UniProtKB/TrEMBL annotation:
This is Dithiol-disulfide isomerase. Keywords: Isomerase. InterPro entries: DSBA-like_thioredoxin_dom, Thioredoxin-like_sf. It holds the Pfam family DSBA. One of its GO terms (molecular function) is oxidoreductase activity. It comes from Desulfobacter hydrogenophilus. Coiled coil: none annotated. The lineage of its organism: Bacteria, Pseudomonadati, Thermodesulfobacteriota, Desulfobacteria, Desulfobacterales. Residues 1-174 form the DSBA-like thioredoxin domain.
Length: 186
């Protein structure tokens, strides 16, 4: 018989994470980044692994030949969260970056994402121009260093940590363990 499922009310809070913060705004070819880091993996292997992971979750994934600086997108993401539109913005940013290979450091790209997430473009332009969420991103990056985070996504719950994209049942098991409940089977 089917497993009984417990419903959990979990608040998800998006946090900024320093994803390749030294990459210039115009981006870098992934091959160059791998070479600079001395990694013995080809861009094709990286893309194939990411595509396989995305496919296992039913997510689209493009060719991913470039890596871009996501700092400004993280600032807008925190603003989107303050506006109650974090999920919409992050979904749009995911598609733009991982499917369309768009540069998330480009202000025009960000303003398009803001519009697609149902946010006010004029307000977003002010946020971008003033960099009013820069300090919030700095605080998140510092917290990431304190917690010794090494990858995104990372889920933290009451001292437990789940690193990387995982199938839903793995996250569900973590939640059940954290709240001290055991899944019952009929």
């Amino acid at each position: 018989m089917d497993k009984l499922r417990k419903t959990y009310n979990i608040e998800i809070k998006w946090r900024a994470y320093p994803l390749q913060p030294d990459v210039p705004e115009q981006g870098l070819p992934i091959a160059r980044l791998l070479e600079e880091k001395g990694l013995l993996v080809t861009p094709e292997q990286v893309t194939a692994n990411l595509k396989a992971t995305a496919q296992s979750f039913g997510l689209p994934f493009g060719e991913g030949k470039m890596i871009y600086n996501s700092r400004l997108a993280q600032e807008i993401g925190l603003w989107a969260q303050a506006c109650g539109r974090a999920h919409q913005f992050h979904d749009a940013a995911f598609k733009a970056y991982f499917v369309d290979d768009s540069n998330l450091a480009d202000k025009t790209v960000l303003l398009d994402l803001v519009a697609s997430a149902g946010l006010d473009g004029a307000q977003a332009k002010k946020i971008i121009d003033s960099r009013s969420y820069a300090d919030a991103v700095d605080r998140d990056w510092e917290k990431a260093r304190e917690l010794e985070l090494v990858a995104a996504p990372t889920f933290l719950m009451k001292g437990q940590r789940l690193v990387g994209a995982k199938p839903y049942p793995v996250l569900e098991k973590m939640v059940a363990e954290v709240v001290g409940e055991v899944q019952a089977c009929l």
